[in-house]
């Protein structure tokens, strides 16, 4: 029997303030509403999903490390740490899991200091500027990654059986 894929969603600083924080930039949808939509999509696609949010860099690093051996992939919005955290970047590189970086706003159209992601080079991809639907797009992309990994494992198992 095939086991469900496990996905961790990690939200960085101030994401807990969505819906009230700078609604002209981030919209009116709350983090809990985004998570509710993601949970529904996960259930429809036979994925186990968990959520974590912290305003503290070390807690985000700890959560990424805890995913090693427990989860199949991570969707992360590192928020402001995108532009400053070598520690988060290194944690992502260390766990070796597929990671998709999400940003509600288009960071490439914002202030110069927000346009550089230290995280992107160690991720499978980056989704920016689509508002909360970016999380849905990330889940679709992660489903594709999970399918590719399963196909690769099946092919390798077939080669060993020959």
Structural features, described:
With 162 residues, this protein is α/β, with parallel strands linked by helices. It is 41% helix and 17% strand. The protein has helices spanning 23-26, 31-44, 57-66, 86-95, 133-161; strands at residues 5-11, 47-53, 73-77, 99-103, 125-128. Strands 2-1-3-4-5 form a five-stranded parallel sheet, sandwiched between helices. Helix 3 packs parallel to helix 4 (86-95). It is globular and about 60 Å long. 31% of the residues are buried. The mean pLDDT is 92.
Describe how the helices and strands are arranged:
Elements: E1 5-11, H1 23-26, H2 31-44, E2 47-53, H3 57-66, E3 73-77, H4 86-95, E4 99-103, E5 125-128, H5 133-161
